[in-house]
Design a protein that fits this description.
With 171 residues, the chain is mainly alpha-helical. It folds into 2 domains: 1-74, Orthogonal Bundle (Rna Polymerase Sigma Factor, Chain: A); 93-171, Winged helix-like DNA-binding domain superfamily/Winged helix DNA-binding domain (Arc Repressor Mutant, subunit A), CATH 1.10.10. 78% of the residues lie in helices and 0% in strands. It has 8 helices and no strands. It is elongated and about 65 Å long.
Length: 171
């Protein structure tokens, strides 16, 4: 496939891809980078594209997946930064207090990690990154009420896991 044919095939919906990436990432630069990456992936599979019935749908799917990957990378770096800040703030406490706080963080992170994937991401965004329900809704493209229900169920599940592990603990 020639580059001119490729441009005619994928350029008509480039603004839709950008809007979708921007809506998910809330960053113009990251959205532009994602769209460029989509073009690179599509170019790499340019000889297979004529076999697809709906190249726009394929492009949207690639864009969505790349945005979710970017959100995961961002989430990991923000969590690390937040943990570093938290540890720096705790330095003024006595050693015993710091140890208790670290143990609590470990337990919480273990509980969150044990949740099934949709709940794990939602709880992380809400409680570790401090996002509100609207922000999460835009990031993961889910209904706000569905997010609330999922997070509520995740909290209940975490409480039950805590109660099993520490039978004397009650929320």
């Amino acid at each position: 496939m020639k580059s001119s044919d490729f441009k005619l095939l994928v350029m008509p919906f480039s603004s839709r891809l950008f809007r979708m990436a921007y809506r998910l990432l809330n960053s113009r630069e990251e959205a532009e980078d994602i769209v460029q990456e989509v073009y690179m992936k599509l170019w790499g599979m340019r000889n297979e594209l004529p076999g697809y019935d709906n190249i726009e749908a394929l492009s949207v799917r690639i864009t969505r997946n790349l945005c979710l990957d970017q959100l995961r990378r961002r989430k990991v770096s923000q969590a690390a930064l937040k943990n570093e800040r938290s540890l720096a703030e705790d330095d003024t406490d006595n050693p015993e207090h710091r140890l208790v706080k670290e143990e609590q963080k470990e337990v919480i992170h273990t509980l969150i990690a044990s949740l099934p994937e949709p709940q794990r991401s939602l709880v992380h965004l809400r409680h570790l990154e401090g996002k509100d329900y609207e922000e999460i809704s835009q990031m993961v493209n889910m209904n706000v009420n569905a997010i609330r229900v999922s997070i509520s169920r995740a909290r209940k599940q975490m409480r039950e896991m805590l109660e099993k592990k520490y039978s004397s603990w009650k929320a």
